[in-house]
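Reading a protein record of the kind used here takes little practice once its layout is understood. Each number in the token line that follows is a code from a learned vocabulary of backbone shapes. One such record is shown here in full, so that the layout can be seen directly:
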Amino acid sequence: MNNNNINILSGRAWKFGDNVDTDVIIPGKYLRTTDMSVFASHVMEGIDPEFSKKVRKGDIIVAGKNFGCGSSREQAPLALKYAGITCIVAESFARIFFRNAINVGLPIIEARIDCREGDNIEIDLEKGIVKNNEKTYSATKMPDFLRKILADGGLVEHRKKVNA
């Protein structure tokens, strides 16, 4: 996401529960490749084998607690990003998943919201709010330095820009 206005995101919601681990986000049998299209075509296969066929660019995942638990594989947020997920809203994230998502340029935000699959969700990373069906929810505000990394497309691109 090389987008200067990373602060406001919106999209269709996909709903998942607690403890979505990296093994269901991208099963281990696909980790021998660096082809992002392979990751995208198998994303969330451990929960919904048809997910990759249904997800569209700009969609948002809404989940419960401890999203991204399990292994430290950075392929999990990469698979979500390349499948078209624009942001993940969850009550909480596994810390290594949180860092990996920021590092690869996938916006995430911690909030507990009520929604149904297919709802249109709007996220303001700068203000720390999530909107759904006329309701506004408080979220953990994304610090400026993390939003800058996201706006630059991830940590590697950010460092290239800073060091240029």
